Amino acid sequence: MDAIGKNTARGCDLRQRAELIAGKERSLDEMSGQVKELKAEIKDLYKDAASNGYSLKVLRGVMKEFHMPEGEREAHYQIEMEFAEEVDIYRHALGLVKDGSAETTISINGGPAAPISVVRAAVDEVKRAKVPA
């Protein structure tokens, strides 16, 4: 009968397990506080950037891209370029573009619009710069 009150599944008693759980809870609580502090710091950084004239929409989008794996980022750019080209086709079809020679422009993450040829050239230049010589 000495097994009563024991949790022998992992070879330790209930009191030891309770102490372990309490320790984990304290660690989680401390980490949660650290996460809140970091989120507040990040919010302040974005606030500071906005007060210095940066577009938060663009900055957040670029930071999201920054954290994407390279292949995913390139796919994201390709989708945006294809979308811009398709939008341009629709604009022409609806007569929204008066000058038939207007070049397709693209705005990445709400940034300023740039001609698609300029964006493609920039992307190609970045790709070339990443290729080891």
Walkthrough of the structure:
By secondary structure, the chain is mainly alpha-helical. The radius of gyration is 27 Å and the shape is elongated. It is built from four helices and two strands; from the N terminus they run H-H-H-E-E-H. The mean pLDDT is 81. A hairpin with a 7-residue loop joins strand 1 and strand 2. The chain folds into two domains: 54 residues; 62 residues, no CATH class. A two-stranded antiparallel sheet has the order 1-2.
Give a quick set of tags describing it.
single chain, 133 residues, mainly alpha, 2 domains, two-stranded antiparallel ribbon, 4 helices, elongated
Average pLDDT works out at 81
Describe the strand arrangement of the main beta sheet, using strand numbers. 1-2
* Count of helical stretches: 4
**So what's the overall shape?**
elongated
How would a textbook summarize the main sheet?
Answer: 2 strands, antiparallel
Helix content: 55-70%
- Gyration radius (Cα, Å) is 27 Å
Stretches with pLDDT under 50, minimum 5 residues: none
List how many beta strands DSSP finds: 2
Beta-sheet strand percentage? under 5%
Structural class: mainly alpha
Count of distinct structural domains: 2
Question: Oligomeric form of this entry?
Answer: single chain
How would you summarize this macromolecular structure in one to three sentences?
This protein is mostly helical and 133 residues long.
